[in-house]
Amino acid sequence: METEIPVPAPPIPVVDIQNLSVSYGHQTAVRNLSLTIPAGEVFGFIGPNGAGKTTTIKVLATLLKPTSGSVRVLGTNVMYSPQQVRRNIGYVPDSFGVYEDLTVAEYLSFFAAAYRIEWDNRAATVKDVLALTDLGNKVDAQVDSLSRGMKQRLGIARVLLHDPQLLLLDEPASGLDPRARIELRELLKELQRMGKTILVSSHILHELSQFCTRIGIIEAGQLVAEGSLMDIYRKLDLKRTVHVQISNLTPQMVEGIRRILGITSAEELADRVAIQVREDELAMEDLLDALRGLGARIRMFQPEAMDMETAFMKLTEGKVS
Questions:
Q1: Which 3 state secondary structure label does DSSP give 133?
Q2: Does the predicted TM-score (pTM) go above 0.90?
Q3: Which of 9, 18, 171, 253 is the most exposed place for a label (fewest CB within 10 A)?
Q4: b or e along 84-113 (b: 16 or more beta carbons within 10 Å of the residue's beta carbon)?
């Protein structure tokens, strides 16, 4: 008699939101929102101001109670066991409150004590998060003298002190200059490599599309689209334009390009051919091979970046909750 091999239970998602609704009096901020985020994912929460992003994050951070629905972090209900949830999350709000007259080291030491990190480990823990957030050279600087970008990194350093599994970042790039945004993006990539699960909200679409593994677009408190960038592009039937320079281009070759499966158009311009491609039908590598198969001698092959703003405008109507 063969022994059945037990099927392992699926891993518990880090975030599990089912039919969440949140109302303020007669105003409904979130409407029947369902969302699951597995471990190690960077989930981008996109939507205009007033769409319900901050409300959803505050529920996950145990700062707001759901009107209805179920919200769990690592299997723990945020409503019934908030203290247990808080041990596993790091919440960085969209506005950074500071304690005047504290240095960076004093600020982090204060929160290390609040997180009940033992005295013997406290200095090493503070040193580690300063190194991770590249603030080691600011250890003696006054907190209220830091630039906004450094304050954002200090806020992330603060919530990393107790090594949470889930980071909740509400509009972390808001008000940052281009250099600070790049530094923040690289920090989030490093946290992802460390295995952190990150929920990051923004209305700056292009930046989230560069490092998020999955995107959720919210409008008027409802999730209107969710999935990888490619999933969203396929849903909208968005096409990628590829600019190609071919040294031996002929009218017959242009017609051959138009007949390649997955190409919707090929327009001959002054110095190149602009090819529109359904990427779910034809990968960029396969397009390149197909062009070479037609005998094309290629000088330039330049796919345009997929446009997250176009996806956002197609999916939303400009409503708020």
A1: coil
A2: no
A3: 9
A4: ebbbbbbbbbeebeeeeeeebbebbbebbe
CA angle 215, 221, 224 (to 5 degrees): 45
State the alpha helices, DSSP H only, in the chain. 53-60, 82-86, 104-114, 119-132, 148-160, 178-193, 205-211, 229-236, 251-258, 284-293, 308-315
Number of Cβ within a 10 Å radius of residue 64: 20
Provide, for the chain, the percentages of residues in helix, strand and coil under a 3-state DSSP scheme, each rounded to the nearest 5.
35, 25, 35
3-state SS class at 60: helix
**Residue 288: helix, strand or coil by DSSP?**
helix
DSSP class of residue 5 equals P
Contacts of 251 (CB under 8 A, 6+ apart): none
> Phi/psi of residue 136, each to 5°?
-60, -30
Three-state SS at 55: helix
Lowest-pLDDT choice from 18-22, 119-123, 177-181, 204-208: 204-208
